[in-house]
Each structure stands twice: as structure tokens, then as C-alpha cells.
Automatic annotation (TrEMBL):
Domain PiggyBac transposable element-derived protein intervals: 2-327
UniProt organism field: Takifugu flavidus
Location of region: Disordered: 384-404
Listed name of the protein: PiggyBac transposable element-derived protein domain-containing protein
PANTHER family the record matches: DUAL SPECIFICITY PHOSPHATASE 26, PIGGYBAC TRANSPOSABLE ELEMENT-DERIVED PROTEIN 4
Length: 444
């Protein structure tokens, strides 16, 4: 992330954004996603009454807008020359360095899913795509190879449209799968009919990779006997074999068949379920949703903000994918972490966001005017400061304020009086009606 360029203004001078500023900016984006504020205006997050105190405690709203507006990922002066041959020139360096790191941090399981991802965007972009089958319909398309079980994004590639030469790319699906599976050995790739072909299966076998995928009916290698669906029994299956490949035609409904190609299976085993689906189809259904699940979990706590600049849209997607990948790695290296919690990812992202903003809050000199945000700043700065000797006059008259609310231990149980206040000496919970006021002198 050293290639990010940003500046902030103090008075009449401009100061370059340092790593602490950048980390705090990323932390606020992650926290905005945690609080489900993707469609919420930034002003409401910084609102004194209804906003979140952590945002005001980190930086002013004006500074956050300045960072969002001035964030750059390349040298703007040399961009026109690079854009002639590279449509992704505005963020190419950051994207390539990020994608290069993804495979080094995680070893995928035996099953890998290859599919397309559409990041919603309706602004001006030279390679914006229209995909009517996707919920967003318009956006920036990426090819993704991810682990079928954990949905860890192992390798990604942005589709920038037709090459600059103007001629359409031939065998694009095969080229994409070979690119995003480079470096894999002994895995099985699951993909849909845009990618699957007999030639792709043979190329992957040379890399010791098997493949399972649906096949389009216009492929020339398909035998006519598998294409025919009339006068066939419903829930029936037909198979065709070569020494390395298995084809199956399954009829789930009358006059409608589904074709799959597999280099993983060598026989025509049919399950004993009521729908009599072949094992090839069951394996495909089990592993086909890796990228779709990635889109779903990212969308739940996405940090995307409204913007007209497509490089910022890609940058937001980088943050979303990176934070989810980090959660997958953390969960697998710490399997007992919060084992009884159902919202682990939300808690992880909240801790991650707060860890990123803490260094900037610790060095902040100007305290926010709102009481809640000022309390956040003081709490973080006091936690990071070295321990100071306590003044008994102040500690005796200032009860602690824990985060949990419990029943007063002096009131009758039937009264059920809840309180946050605890005694500074015995640490018992005590409500306001049971407390006794003392002056500092008598408290000694």
C-alpha cells in the first residue's frame, strides 16, 4: 500500500498522508461496513447525536472527505501514456501487488471454484459491464478463483473489455481458468458453462488439475446422443466416456437436459436419492457456490461508499476481499476463537477497524467537542499512556464504569434494580439510591 498517494491540508500548507492516517482511513471504512452504513451518508456517521462516537474520535468529517477525494494510486502525470495500452493504469500497480500476495497467504483445499464477480458501479468507466443476470446489473467484472469451502479469494483478475487491438478474444474462458489456476497442483476446479470445454479439461490435466463443470450445448465435441432429450425418461442419465473425460446428460424435467463434463470421475455412478442425480452433478452442486458465497459475505459488511471514480470502487473491493481473507486465515489458525459466537466475522471486523484507528486517536491532540467522542479519545489515550499513580481523593469519589449492567447487590432481589456503577473498593454493583456521597476529605 506504499503506492497510495494522498494529502491533507493544515492551514495554507499541504502535508502528505502518512501510514497512520491511511490505516485510520481504512479502519473507518471497515467500521462503516460493520455498522451496515453502505447507503448512509457520511455526515450521519459523524452526527453529534445519532452518529457513532468512534468516527468523530478518529478524525473530522472534513478530513475524511478530503482523503476520499484526493486518494490516488499512481502518478497522475504519466497516466495518459500508460492508459494507451492499459485501461487499468490508474490502479494497476496497487492491484498487481495485492493480487500477487493473495496465493502466498493461504493454501486452498482440494476443491477450487472459478467464477465471475461483479462489483456494482454505474459511473463512467471504460470497461464497465452489463450483466442482466446479476443483481447490480452494471459494474466492474472480475474473474475469481477461490477455495470452494472457505471462499478465500486465492487469485483475481479484472476484465477490462476487448483488447486495445479491437478484435475479440478467442477462447477467453479457457485462458481465464488457466491464468487464475496457475500454481495449483492436485486440485479440482469447478466452473460453469462459460469456461468448460474439452480442450480446457485436457490442458488442466497436464497441470495435474481435474475439472467439473456444466457444458453449453453448442460445443462441437458433444455427441448427438447426449443432446437429444425427447422421448427420454424423466430423471434419467446418459453417459459418454473417453480415457480421461466423462460426459453426462441428466433429464431433471421433460424435454430439458443438463450437460456436465468431468475429468475427475471415471464412471457413471448414480446416487440412490429420489431424484437419481449422478455423482458428478452432486459434486458440482457442492462446490459451485464458492465465488457466490464470497459475494454474499462481502456484501453483508461491505465498506463501499458512493463515488464517481472507478479506481476507488476497485480499492473498496480490495479492502472488502482483504478483510474477509484475513478473517478466514484468523479463523483457521485460531479455531477456538469465540467458538460460541454466531457473528464472528462482524466481531472480527469491528476489532480490526478499531485496531487500525487506535494509533491515530492516540496521537490526537485536539479533543472532539461531543462528550461521547471525547470519552473515546480519552479512554484510548489513557490506555496507551504509562500507568500514573492514582490520587486517592479522586479514585474514592469516582466509581468505576464497567461495560456490563448488573443487578444492584444491596437492593432486594425482587426490586431488580440494574446499574452500571460499581464500588471503587469492593467492586460490588450498587445503584444510585444505595450510594452515599462523600467529600474528598472524608473519603480518605
Amino acid at each position: 500500500m506504499t503506492n497510495l498517494h494522498g494529502f491533507r491540508k493544515y492551514g495554507d500548507s499541504w502535508t502528505k498522508m502518512d501510514e497512520t492516517d491511511l490505516h485510520a482511513y481504512l479502519g473507518l471504512l471497515i467500521l462503516a461496513g460493520v455498522y451496515r452504513s453502505r447507503g448512509e451518508a457520511a455526515a450521519s456517521l459523524w452526527d453529534a447525536e445519532n452518529g457513532r462516537p468512534i468516527f468523530r474520535a478518529t478524525m473530522p468529517l472534513k478530513l475524511f472527505h478530503t482523503y476520499s477525494r484526493l486518494l490516488r494510486f499512481d502518478d497522475r502525470e504519466s497516466r495518459p501514456a500508460r492508459r494507451v495500452t492499459d485501461k487499468l493504469a490508474a490502479i494497476r500497480d496497487v492491484w498487481d501487488k495485492w493480487v500477487e500476495r493473495l496465493p502466498y497467504l493461504y493454501n486452498p483445499g482440494p476443491d477450487v471454484t472459478v467464477d465471475e464477480q461483479l462489483v456494482p458501479f454505474r459511473g463512467r468507466c471504460p470497461f464497465r459491464q452489463y450483466m442482466p443476470s446479476k443483481p447490480a446489473k452494471y459494474g466492474i467484472k472480475s474473474w475469481v478463483a477461490c477455495d470452494a469451502k472457505s471462499s478465500y479469494a486465492w487469485k483475481m483478475q479484472i476484465y477490462t473489455g476487448k483488447p486495445t487491438s479491437g478484435s475479440p478474444e478467442k477462447k477467453q474462458g479457457m485462458r481465464v481458468v488457466l491464468d487464475v489456476t496457475e500454481g495449483l497442483r492436485g486440485h479440482n476446479v469447478t466452473c460453469d458453462n462459460f469456461f468448460t470445454s474439452y480442450e480446457l479439461g485436457q490442458q488442466l490435466l497436464k497441470r495435474k488439475i481435474t475439472m467439473v463443470g456444466t457444458v453449453r450445448k453448442n460445443k462441437p465435441e458433444l455427441p448427438p446422443a447426449l443432446l437429444a432429450s425427447k422421448e427420454r425418461e424423466v430423471l434419467s442419465s446418459k453417459f459418454a466416456f473417453t480415457p480421461t473425460t466423462t460426459l453426462v446428460s441428466y433429464l431433471p424435467k421433460k424435454n430439458k437436459n443438463v450437460l456436465l463434463l468431468s475429468t475427475l470421475h471415471r464412471d457413471g455412478v448414480i446416487s440412490d436419492r429420489g431424484d437419481r442425480k449422478p455423482v458428478i452433478i452432486l459434486d458440482y452442486n457442492r462446490n459451485k457456490g464458492g465465488v457466490d458465497n464470497l459475494d454474499k459475505v462481502i456484501g453483508a459488511y461491505s465498506c463501499r461508499r458512493m463515488t464517481a471514480h472507478w479506481p476507488l470502487v476497485i480499492f473498496h473491493n480490495i479492502i472488502d476481499v482483504s478483510s474477509y481473507n484475513a478473517f478466514v486465515i484468523w479463523r483457521e489458525t485460531n479455531p477456538n476463537w469465540m467458538s460460541r459466537k454466531y457473528n464472528k466475522r462482524r466481531l472480527f471486523l469491528e476489532q480490526l477497524g478499531k485496531a487500525l484507528v487506535t494509533p491515530l486517536i492516540e496521537r490526537r491532540k485536539q479533543i472532539p467537542r461531543t462528550e461521547a467522542s471525547a470519552a473515546v479519545v480519552k479512554a484510548i489515550q489513557n490506555a496507551g499512556a504509562p500507568d500514573q499513580p492514582e490520587d486517592p481523593a479522586t479514585t474514592a469519589t469516582s466509581p468505576a464504569r464497567p461495560s456490563k449492567r448488573k443487578r444492584c447487590q444491596f437492593c432486594p432481589q425482587k426490586k431488580d434494580c440494574k446499574t452500571y456503577t460499581v464500588c471503587c473498593k469492593c467492586k460490588k454493583y450498587i445503584c444510585r439510591s444505595c450510594t452515599l456521597p462523600y467529600c474528598p476529605t472524608c473519603a480518605k
